[in-house]
Design brief:
It contains nine helices and 29 strands. By secondary structure, it is an alpha+beta fold. The chain has two domains: 240 residues, Jelly Rolls; 260 residues, no CATH class. Strands 2, 4, 5, 6, 7, 18, 20, 25, 26, 27 and 29 form an eleven-stranded mixed β-sheet that branches. Strands 8, 9, 10, 11, 12, 13, 14, 15, 16 and 17 form a ten-stranded mixed β-sheet that branches.
C-alpha cells in the first residue's frame, strides 16, 4: 500500500511539472531591448561583400519617379494624404502628422423640392456641387473657391482615369441610340460584361480611397445599380427591385438633386455640359487651367469630367457619379436605385417620412480635404521600383509622440495569396515604432489578412531609441530567411512561412489608431509631429 501511495505521489509531481512550466506561466511576446547582448553586426558599406543598388538621401525634391503616393483616404482611425510627405531641403524626408480637414468645402446651401407623395425634400450641398456651378439659384462659377491644388494624390487621379476609360468602353458596348430616342432597358449579356469592371472600380473608389468614413460601409451588388442619362434619354438598370419600363428614373434623379421638375434639371444639366465643353475647348487651345471649373470634379485624360457625390438620407448613404463624357453627354451613375427611390419617397414601399433631408458629400470632401481628423503622410514605390533579395536600411529619428506609430515595410509578391505560405507573398515590417511602450516591432505577415492570416514577430520595449538621434533599421532578405538589424546589430532572424522569391515594393508611413497600450492615446491638442528620415538604401550581396 505504501508503495502504491509513493507511486501516486511521484506521478502527481511529474504531472504538475509540465503544468507549472506551460499551463501557469504567462506568455510574454516581447523583451526589454539590451543592445549590449547583440554581438553580430553587418557592414553593408564593405564593398567586398555588398554593392549599393538603391540610394535616396532626399537631397532634392521628393523623387516622384520612385516614391509614389500611397492610397489616399481613411487608414485605421486617421487618414493618409499626399501633401504630408515631402523633403525639407536639408536632405531629409519628412512624414508629418497633424490635425486638419473640414466637413464641407465652403459655405453650405439648401434647396427644397416636392418629392413623391407630396413629401418635402431638403438638399444640403456645398460649393463643389456640380449643379451649383450654374447661374441662378445655385450661384456663379466665378464665386467658387479652390480646394484641390495639391491635396489629391497621383494614385487617385490614375484611378479616376481608369474609371473614365471603363465608362467609355461600357457605353460603346451598349450601343445607345444615336438619334436621341428614349431607351429604357435592363442590362444583360455583353452589356453586363462591359459594365462589371466599371461598377467594381466605381465602388472601390468610394470604399477604398474616400476620406469620408460613411461611404466605406456602403456595400451593394451590381444588380442594385443603375445608369440614367440626363442630356440623352436613356436608363439602364439591372432591375432587381425596380422595373425600368415603368419607373420614371428622370424624375427620381432630378428630385434626388433637389430640382422641382425634370425640365429644370435638364436645363441646368445642359448648361453644365455646355460650360464644360467651352472649358475643354479652351484647354485644347492652350489656355490655363481654371481652378473654379475643376473644383468639384476630376478631369480625366480622355476628356471626361467625373463628379463623385455621396448622398446621405437618414441612415442610408447613396453613392453617385455625375459623368460628363468627352462627347458632351451627361449621365448619373447610382449604386442603389432602391435607396434613391427611398430618398425621394417614390411610393409606399420606399416611403420614409413627410420630410426628407438629403445631405451630400462632394469631391473635395470625399477624396481631397476630408473631414476633420488626424492626417499623416505616406509614400511607397509600388509600380515604380521593386526589388528582391537584399539588405534594406532606413536611417531616421524617431518621434516619441504617443498615439501614432511609424513603419518602414515591404509588400512582396501576392501577400493576399493563401495557398503557398509566404513563398509567393509576404509583408515584411522592417520595423515599427510603438511609442507608449518605447517599443520596436519586427514582423512578417503572410496568407492574406483574413482568417488564414499568419505572422511571426519579435518585439523589444524600453529601447530608448526616440532620443532625437539618428538610428538605422535594416533587414537582410536572402534564400535563408529574414534577418533584422537595429543600428546594424543583428536582433532577430526568421523564415516566416517560407522564403519569398517574389520582388516587393517599399513603403514608409505613419499611422494613427488603436494598438492597445503599445501605441497609447494621442493628445487631442497635439502639435504637428515630424518623422525625419535621412536615407533609404538597398544593398545586394556581391557574388563570390
Amino acid at each position: 500500500m505504501k508503495r502504491i501511495l509513493i507511486c501516486l505521489l511521484i506521478l502527481t509531481l511529474l504531472c504538475a511539472i509540465p503544468l507549472a512550466a506551460f499551463g501557469c506561466k504567462k506568455k510574454v511576446d516581447y523583451e526589454k531591448y539590451n543592445p549590449s547582448k547583440f554581438t553580430e553586426s553587418i557592414d553593408p558599406t564593405d564593398s567586398t561583400k555588398y554593392a549599393l543598388v538603391f540610394c535616396d538621401e532626399f537631397e532634392d525634391d521628393l523623387n516622384r519617379d520612385v516614391w509614389g503616393d500611397t492610397r489616399q483616404g481613411t487608414r485605421r482611425d486617421g487618414y493618409w494624404t499626399k501633401n504630408l510627405a515631402y523633403t525639407d531641403g536639408n536632405g531629409n524626408l519628412i512624414i508629418r502628422t497633424e490635425k486638419k480637414g473640414s466637413r464641407y468645402c465652403s459655405a453650405t446651401h439648401e434647396r427644397q423640392t416636392a418629392g413623391y407623395n407630396g413629401s418635402q425634400i431638403t438638399l444640403v450641398y456645398d460649393d463643389c456641387f456640380p449643379f451649383g456651378m450654374i447661374a441662378g439659384d445655385f450661384g456663379e462659377i466665378e464665386n467658387l473657391t479652390t480646394h484641390t491644388e495639391d491635396l489629391v494624390g497621383n494614385e487617385i487621379l490614375s484611378e479616376f482615369d481608369t474609371l473614365a476609360t471603363l465608362y467609355a468602353s461600357f457605353i460603346n458596348a451598349c450601343s445607345i441610340p444615336s438619334d436621341g430616342s428614349a431607351w429604357n432597358r435592363t442590362l444583360e449579356g455583353e452589356s453586363v460584361t462591359a459594365y462589371t469592371p466599371f461598377f467594381e472600380k466605381a465602388m472601390r473608389l468610394y470604399n477604398y480611397y474616400s476620406f469620408v468614413k460613411e461611404t466605406k460601409v456602403v456595400s451593394t451588388t451590381l444588380g442594385e445599380s443603375a445608369l440614367i442619362g440626363v442630356t440623352h434619354p436613356y436608363a439602364m438598370a439591372f432591375g432587381r427591385e425596380t422595373d425600368p419600363q415603368s419607373t420614371d428614373y428622370g424624375k427620381v434623379i432630378s428630385e434626388l438633386f433637389g430640382f422641382s421638375t425634370e425640365e429644370e434639371f435638364e436645363t441646368q444639366a445642359k448648361a453644365l455640359v455646355n460650360g464644360y465643353a467651352d472649358y475643354s475647348a479652351k484647354l485644347a487651345e492652350g489656355k490655363e487651367v481654371n481652378a473654379a471649373w475643376e473644383n468639384g470634379c476630376f478631369h480625366t485624360s480622355n476628356g471626361s469630367f467625373l463628379f463623385p457625390i455621396a448622398f446621405q438620407s437618414e441612415s442610408t448613404v447613396l453613392l453617385t457619379y455625375v459623368i460628363i463624357s468627352a462627347d458632351g453627354e451627361l449621365s448619373v451613375w447610382i449604386n442603389d436605385i432602391a435607396a434613391a427611390l427611398k430618398a425621394t419617397n417614390y411610393d409606399a414601399s420606399h416611403y420614409t417620412s413627410e420630410k426628407v433631408r438629403n445631405e451630400i458629400y462632394c469631391k473635395n470632401v470625399l477624396f481631397v480635404t476630408g473631414p476633420e481628423g488626424v492626417y499623416s503622410g505616406a509614400v511607397r514605390t509600388r509600380d515604380l521600383y521593386t526589388h528582391g533579395f537584399g539588405y534594406y536600411e532606413i536611417r531616421c529619428k524617431l518621434p516619441d509622440t504617443e498615439g501614432i506609430w511609424h513603419a518602414f515595410w515591404l509588400m512582396c509578391g501576392d501577400v493576399y495569396s493563401e495557398e503557398n505560405g509566404s513563398t509567393d507573398g509576404i509583408e515584411i515590417d522592417v520595423f515599427e515604432y510603438l511609442p507608449a511602450r518605447d517599443a520596436v516591432n519586427l514582423a512578417l505577415h503572410w496568407d492574406g489578412y483574413d482568417e488564414a492570416h499568419q505572422n511571426a514577430h519579435k518585439r523589444y520595449e524600453k529601447t530608448h531609441l526616440a532620443d532625437n538621434e539618428y538610428h538605422t533599421f535594416g533587414m537582410n532578405w536572402d534564400e535563408n530567411g529574414y534577418t533584422f538589424y537595429i543600428d546594424r546589430k543583428k536582433v532577430w532572424t526568421s523564415t516566416g512561412g517560407g522564403i519569398c522569391h517574389e520582388e516587393g515594393y517599399m513603403k514608409i508611413s505613419t499611422e494613427y489608431g488603436e494598438w492597445g497600450d503599445w501605441v497609447g492615446e494621442l493628445d487631442p491638442a497635439f502639435t504637428p509631429v515630424d518623422w525625419v528620415i535621412d536615407y533609404v538604401k538597398i544593398y545586394d550581396r556581391v557574388s563570390k
